[in-house]
Every structure is written in structure tokens, then in C-alpha cells.
Amino acid sequence: MSQAYVSAPARASLEGVRTRRLTGLCFDFVAVSVIATLIYVLLLVLTLGLSFFFLPPLWPIVAFFYSGVTMSGPRHATPGMRATDLQVKMHDTGAPVPFLNAAAHGAFFYISWFFPLVFLVTLVDSDKRFLHDILSGVVVTRRQ
Q: Does residue 2 fall inside a structural domain?
């Protein structure tokens, strides 16, 4: 593994991250569902029901942009992560996460639900990173 941004003194910023991420995920899942439902209903009304036939994939699209915009934003976290006192940084530099990395992180996360065993990667990774963190080049830490 390459030199990680999270140094030995910063290991304290990784304590409790997995549990906090699970709690934040529940909040974000509800938030994405509410946003997608509102958009879906609004578009159904505006198109007089015609959008019903081409909007079923709306939830993943909202989740993609929700992750990308919030994690690359000024607070470096989704609202669920902020509620649980977490932030996202680039793994190698500690820099803020660009939109594409943040959106890819969200996409990889939702794809990983089809392969639940990949969540076990976090149990062997020294930085407590999940596979979708590794693939998108980010690390989730507690806010300092």
C-alpha cells in the first residue's frame, strides 16, 4: 500500500469511524429518498404523468449527485456524515475531494450493495477504508 495521508498521530481520527458511517448512511439514505420522491412527484405533475415511463432510475441519479456535490463541497461531507462528525479527504494528500472522486465514491458504494462481501475489506485495511473508498482514492475521518 502507498504512503497514506493518515499518519500515526492521526490514528485517533479513525476511531469509531465505521459506526459513525453507518449512522450517517441511514440519514443520507432517507435524505436521498426524500429528494428523489419530491423530484419524481414534481415531474409527474409537470408532465401530466408522462414522466412515469422514463423516471424509474431517478434514485441512483439523485444519489450520484448528492454524493458528488456534498462531499466535494466546502464541508467535505454529506449531511449524514456531518451529523456524525465525519469528513472526507483525498487519501494520498489530505486535500479536499473533487466532484468526480466524490461522485464515483457514491456510485461505487451503491454498486457494492450488490456484492456485500466487499464490505469486509474494511476489517483488514489499516485506515478502516472500505473498497469504495480505496477505488475512489478517499479516506473518511472524524472531524478535528
A: no
